[in-house]
Amino acid sequence: MNELIPLMVVIPLICALLLNLFHKKDRTVKIIAIIVAIAIPIIPLIANYGLHYFGGHAPLITDPTLLSTLPASIANSTLATFHPAITYSFEAFQKLFIFILGIVAFFAIFTSLNQNKKVSGPLMFLMFMGTAAVTAILLSDDIFNIYVFFEIAALTQVGIILTSKSDNNYQMALKYLILGSIGGPLMLLGIGFVLGVIGSVNITDIVYAISHNLVNPFSPALIFAFGLIFFGWLYASGLPPFHTIKSGIYSKALPNSAALLQAFTVITFIGIGIAIFRIFSYLPFFHTLLLLFSLAAMILGVTMAIMQTDFRRMLGFLALGELGFILLGFALGTQFSITAGLFQAVNELIVTALLFIGLGTVLYLTKTSDTNKLGGLIVNNPIVAIMVLIGGLAMAGVPPLNGFQSKLMIIQASLNSGFPEISIIAVLVSIVTFMVFVKAFHSIYLKPKPNDLKILDKPIPKSSVFAITVLLILCIILGLFPHLATDSISQFAMGLI
């Protein structure tokens, strides 16, 4: 059933267009949104592994009958191995990430529909459009196709911020657009250089041409292309020096939207990162460069988080630090380290969504995310408070939760690669993450309630409680049985090195 592969992108894409069309019909929007949100994580579970080709055909070498009818100059050339169509590849690795993305998207959409009296058709349009875009990034074996959907995902993130109606949201969206007008075109220019040198934008073809010395791998054009694409990747991921703008975006979005925005960032980060790793990992300075940016992200993330009094901004910076752990796995460049880094990405998708939705209940009850103005909220719903605390412990890497397993693997990978200093830094960053979250938890839930704090006299929405519970269960399951994720990731990592 390879026909299901494009449906992972097409269905949320069509749904987005329909929801925008029916944006004034609340009941219709709700029904369509819920049905498609349920379908998104199901489709990758029932789809068969394989390839799907858009706008062309499979490489000539895969069709011996056709190949035999062609001139020998074509049949025996590299041209026969090239991919003339846009190729989507779906394996166990993609299944895992698209499934987790679908779970996060479902809960973001489900909680949004239940918490808002008036359904926002444009917001639903943006959520589904962004989900379709990042799914395409993960499936595509075409670097230009990745760029196109990266730009779509970036625009949907700006739109989601504009619909949040929070203070200074327009200003933050404008800043992101201005940076995007620089980062995006530079990435496209880099892809243009690759196309000029290789003659193809298919990643498998590019890797083949470089590895078989069909082109000079150290040509100035390819090295310049790497610099441009790498810069665009930093912007897309919110890595330094773009960390403040990315965390600002999370702080201006509604919590359920922020959970989905973070998922978009992580998927874009690993999708483009894998493409860069496949194409340019042969460069002698490649792993050193990744290592420097991974350490910068880890250290800056927790350092900036310490200084925040807005818990949404704090979560944004902590999420940046978690991206550093993922990048560290790529930087070390072994099968085990890449497996650890990608497992960390799975855990970040789950844990960060849990925390944004969980702490979003605080914003729902109090209309503020300033920890200086909060306190005593554990009385309102101690069960939710405890689940949020456990989610924070998972992010900090406390056993036996999923964050502990992936961070332990990254520390072991650092030791195996002969970098005990990096292992120490990773442990210290995890400890500081623990301290930052415990401090925020105390300010929100445990310290005495301020006299001027007004709490909404309503129970926490059941949709939010349900989402937090399911995400927490996933944290525990992957903490106790990490092989459920690492087995498929390890096979994928083996093919990268």
Descriptive overview:
It is a single chain. By secondary structure, this protein is an all-alpha fold. The protein has helices spanning 4-21, 26-46, 64-68, 72-75, 92-115, 121-139, 143-162, 169-198, 203-211, 220-237, 243-252, 255-280, 286-306, 311-332, 335-366, 382-396, 402-416, 420-446, 462-480, 483-496, and strands at 50-54, 86-90. Strands 1-2 form a two-stranded antiparallel ribbon. The protein is globular. The mean pLDDT is 88.
Helices and strands in order:
Elements: H1 4-21, H2 26-46, E1 50-54, H3 64-68, H4 72-75, E2 86-90, H5 92-115, H6 121-139, H7 143-162, H8 169-198, H9 203-211, H10 220-237, H11 243-252, H12 255-280, H13 286-306, H14 311-332, H15 335-366, H16 382-396, H17 402-416, H18 420-446, H19 462-480, H20 483-496
Number of strands: 2
Mean pLDDT: 88
H and E string: HHEHHEHHHHHHHHHHHHHHHH
Instruction: Please count the helical segments.
Output: 20
> What's the alpha carbon Rg, rounded to whole Å?
23 Å
Q: Oligomeric status of the shown chains?
A: single chain
**What would you call the shape?**
globular
Identify low-pLDDT runs: none
Strand content: under 5%
Category by helix and strand content: mainly alpha
Estimate the helix proportion, in percent. Answer: over 70%
- Give a short account of the largest sheet: 2 strands, antiparallel
* Largest sheet, spatial ordering of strands: 1-2
Instruction: Please give the alpha-carbon distance between the first and last residues.
Output: 29 Å
